[in-house]
Write a structure and sequence with these properties.
This protein has about 525 residues and is α/β, with parallel strands linked by helices. Among the domains are: about 100 residues, Conserved hypothetical protein from pyrococcus furiosus pfu- 392566-001, ParB domain; about 220 residues, Rossmann fold (3-Layer(aba) Sandwich), CATH 3.40.50.150. It has 16 helices and 18 strands. A five-stranded mixed sheet has the order 6-7-11-10-14, with helices on both faces. Strands 1-4-2-3 form a four-stranded mixed sheet. α5 runs antiparallel to α8, α7 runs parallel beside α9 and α9 crosses α15.
Length: about 525
């Protein structure tokens, strides 16, 4: 057993490696507070390990407590055979193997172990280096963090260094602050850093790409509040739109496009405004431009979800209706989009389960309306239509999911139009092949622009989406034989929309041939 000596605490020297790897003692750290209480109540249980020149190898945190405790003057120590120059990072962590550590500290030690043996292999060709690395890392992770968690910390460090041009020390300090002071879980800050990293890489790559354009598709990167460079008055037949919802429901990719006519209202993204009237003010700048380019025979559709704030219903659909009526537009119908699996909300109301699709026109007598766009298949779609035999069949204004459930011989058909989530997995692969990451988290179900376009346009008409995103509306427009203009303020979305369109065209050559022949 190693001999235990006692020396005056003022003779001991704190090791700078401790501050580098584990940070300063902090009253904000629960583990540090627990150690302080233990020393006050029970004294120093474990001796400090020091070099012959009294540099502390193991026990620096205890020494930081002892220095500020006037009741303790002498400290138990064990002398190590190492001199100061031999105490490198690897030697330091192996002497502190029993220390209680958070995931960031463990990840740092995990990396140092691998780096140590890799260095040794390069010099001595140590044949069992890999085995020792594996063994020491397993011991480090035993009864603590999972390997997945540690790899996420290391990935976060790597992304920080590339994103912010941090050096290693700055990256570790930043991660330590997130974990210890801000008390963020590893998975939380990993996703945050990963999202920022992917966003930056997507934006850098998108700046080098041309936007997709052909005789049917025109992708426009810019503000939808002024389309005078692209569209003349009364040139568009249909404007299906899904603006970001009010009340900060989602975050979207944005770039540095500035709208000089737009007040900021202390917010970066649309939907994050403090007041509903600020949201409506921003929305109407885009909708006024949509009105300008709309034909007298055209239609504008606005997809909107209502929200409650502090127990008060915001009534966003009706605010939009009033604002559009103030511009001379006529609200001809409000389509109810029923959601079987809406976002769960536990509050003093019934569970919100629908969104609205508001339909506006310039002239109730002139606007184009196709009531025969669906065929005989409607007979198999439950309650999607109303009427029959002696009456013309009509599409209902409530769009909900179909079901094949049958109980007691009776079909419990909730169903009108089935809206499945777009196959994100397929789109992820398409973009990955081009070096991009999919970040758009609110892709438009194809069925929604479908009912807007098919009911109000003919082949050869023009469709505009002023919040184009990944151009789901454009795909439906092309399938119907319409020309499409898609506008988005994000360069990344605009470029990625073009990639999606090209993939769609490559896989649907029959539609390409049909449109060319027509």
């Amino acid at each position: 057993m190693d001999k235990v000596d006692k020396i005056n605490k003022r003779e001991l020297r704190l090791n700078p490696l401790s501050l580098k790897i584990y940070g300063q003692f902090s009253f904000l750290n629960e583990l540090d507070i627990a150690l302080l209480r233990s020393i006050i109540l029970e004294g120093i249980k474990e001796p400090l390990i020091i070099t012959k020149s009294k540099l502390v190898i193991s026990g620096n945190r205890r020494l930081q407590v002892i220095i500020n405790d006037n009741n303790i003057q002498e400290v138990p120590v064990i002398y190590s055979d190492l001199n100061d120059e031999q105490v490198d990072e690897y030697q330091f962590i192996t002497h502190n193997i029993q220390r209680v550590k958070n995931e960031v500290q463990i990840a740092r030690e995990y990396e140092l172990i691998g780096r140590h043996y890799k260095s040794r292999q390069g010099v001595k060709k140590d044949l069992d280096g890999k085995f020792k690395t594996k063994l020491e890392r397993e011991n480090l992770l035993k009864n603590s963090s999972s390997l997945t968690t540690i790899k996420r910390v290391l990935a976060s460090k790597k992304m920080l260094m590339e994103l912010n041009e941090f050096n290693e020390e700055q990256s570790w300090e930043y991660l330590s602050d997130l974990r210890v002071n801000q008390k963020k879980e590893v998975n939380t800050f990993f996703k945050q850093i990963e999202s920022e990293y992917q966003s930056t890489k997507n934006e850098e790559k998108s700046l080098k790409e041309e936007l997709y354009r052909d005789e049917y598709f025109q992708i426009i990167h810019g503000s939808s509040t002024d389309l005078s460079k692209y569209l003349k008055d009364q040139t568009i037949d249909c404007v299906p739109s899904s603006p970001p919802y009010f009340n900060a429901v989602r975050d979207y990719q944005e770039d540095s496009i500035q709208d000089n006519n737009q007040e900021d209202h202390n917010t970066k993204q649309m939907g994050h405004e403090e007041k509903p009237e600020h949201y409506i003010e921003r929305l109407m700048k885009t909708l006024r431009e949509s009105i300008r380019v709309l034909k007298d025979t055209g239609s504008i559709f606005v997809n909107v979800q209502d929200h409650t704030r502090d127990g008060v219903l915001m009534n966003m659909p009706y605010r939009i209706i009033q604002a559009m009526q103030n511009e001379g537009m006529i609200n001809v119908q409000n389509i109810i989009w029923y959601k079987v699996n809406p976002l769960y909300q536990n509050r003093k109301t019934f569970q919100p389960s629908n969104e609205y699709i508001l339909h506006f026109v310039k002239d109730v007598k002139k606007y184009k309306w196709r009531s025969d766009w669906f065929g005989s298949e409607d007979q198999f779609l439950g309650d999607i239509t109303y009427g029959g035999e002696d009456k013309k069949r009509l599409i209902r204004s409530v769009l909900i999911y179909p079901t094949n459930n049958i109980k007691d011989g009776i079909s419990i058909a909730q169903g009108l139009i089935q809206t499945k989530v777009i196959n994100n997995h397929y789109l992820v692969k398409v973009l990955k092949r081009k070096g991009y990451t999919l970040q758009h988290n609110a892709l438009f179900p194809l069925e929604i622009p479908m009912i807007c376009i098919l009911s109000t346009t003919d082949r050869g008409d023009s469709v505009l989406d002023v919040y184009s995103g990944m151009s789901s509306t454009g795909i439906v427009a092309f399938a119907h034989g319409c020309k499409y203009y898609g506008v988005d303020s994000s360069r990344v979305y605009s470029v990625q929309a073009g990639i999606r369109i090209q993939d769609f065209l490559e896989n649907n050559q029959h539609l390409v041939k049909r449109n060319k022949n027509n």
